[in-house]
Amino acid sequence: MSAVGIGVIGVGVISDTYLQNLARFPDTEVLIVGDLLLDRAQAQAEKYGVPAFGSADDVLAHPGVDLVINLTIPAVHVEVSRAAIAAGKHVWTEKPLGLDRDGAAALLREADAAGLRVGSAPDTLLGPGFQAARRAIESGVIGRPLFAQTAFQTQGPDLWHPSPAFLFAEGAGPLLDMGPYYFSALVSLLGPVASVAAVGSKAREEREIRTGPNAGTLFPVEVPSTIQIVTAFEQGAQAQSLLSFDSALERHGIVEIHGTEGTIVIPDPNMFAGRIAYVKPLGVLRDGMSFEQEWVEISHEDIEIGRGLGALDMVRAIAADRPHVASGELGFHVLDVLLSAQESARTGRAVAVESTVGPVPLLPEGFDPFVATL
Q: Where does the GFO/IDH/MocA-like oxidoreductase domain start and stop, copy by copy (predicted)?
């Protein structure tokens, strides 16, 4: 066997990190990149030594491509992924899996009927930080998980992005742009979601582009720019989550899991590594005793890794006939949760989540992305 042939559709900003990492994995080989703008596809092909470039159709028609990586805009994620399945290719898609339940469900049905796999970002779940945190929780370091708190707060991507309007449009906002990271992590740790209740707001109806050639241009805010969500999980745990593009305080990656025997903080779910530490209950307090708690740090492997790890896990899982970690089914359930939160914020009522998902697997012990296994 040899490296699996990969084609990339969509070569915007995020394609750089994918192309860098996929070139480092001995088990993957990018054969062609495609984009609506052929000159952009050519530039990326030349930059990363990819032997061919062209349109999306050229990628789908390439005989050596077994896996398509879909890095297009969210509005066409399902359309491009379904085209890849129809062409007989496995597909890995950037988050979210889609923007509506019907299209995403059709994608998974078509893949299943064709005997093909779908994977969905985020693949930070495969990073050494999150994997070590999951193993620590499953070892019982905090006892039975009871509830979680997560927070992502920023002034908004209009602070730095030269074309930020799409991040405030339908299908985005902090809920669908950043929510997949936090809720994929929560579902992996606490199991599937049973119901959600949410409230949302906008700080203002218009935003201003602050950088780049269109600085000073106004654009509409179409979705809540702040949303707070209370989540009930099927297995009894609860969570509260804040996602905001309106906060003067920049605070990212807050994930705390509180259990019967302690509390653990885990890495930013948008990163592949980070701090893991836990505290135990204080016990009995008497006069003069300190309220300070000792944090116990958990070390883990800190290898330089990034986007593309989920695609690598997919190709290895296909070869080994085992489940891959960041599956289409997980992506669908997270999408269902986020759309349910959107509906709850709009209607003011709690919403039952219709979908579910099985346990999310851990990576095999000793998983090394830089060793050839195929």
A: 130-265
